[in-house]
Amino acid sequence: MITMACISVVGCFHSNHSITPLGNGVEGKAETLVIPALSNEAWMEEFSEDFTEVEVDAEPESLFILDGAYTVQIDHNDQKSLRLPGSPMGDFGLLFGPRIRDKALELRFSFFSTKMGRRMPSIAAGIGGVRGFRLRINPAARNLVLSLEEKSLHTLPFSWSGDQWWSVRFQIIPKDLGNSTLVNYKLWPAQEIEPSSWLVSEKFDIEYKGGKCALWGFPYASTPILFDNLNILSK
Question: What does pTM read for this prediction?
């Protein structure tokens, strides 16, 4: 049985800060995330992909596409990102990075999308494989949902605004000799300064088994979803 040992919720935010589109409703490539020292114990980079070396219209060899027509595209400023088209509508995922067990993991990435009328896209990030810990951003429902093996663990109100890049940090840290797991995450508009505190820091009495990292796009708005600056760290 999954039980929550403790929780610290810092809060949620909504940004009204605007930026200038680069054309066709698509913002420019998000700035590369700088990975600082996070504690006295160093985090090591296990995987990095910013798609700059991948050919346009190609499917990156560094990713394992589960479903969806993911390809690398370029904007008019010669900046590349991974693009999931707005059609067809569905649930489209990919796996990437090494399969890592018995270590704390952090997944970092950026994403961009837009709404169409009242329809909004959704995205999700996973650590520990397809059925591992999953953080899903639901703009239409105005919330973030943390789940494990398709069971909801925590829901947090959250207001998303489109037409801008967002940055995400998502950590899974085994605690108490692996018998419990600390989950940290935060997201913020990429053009703004990273918040100093986690949006949520939550500990569960549950074993973390490890695995690959994953991303999913749900183009409910029939508009493209872009991903960029994929990084996996461990310690």
Answer: 0.83
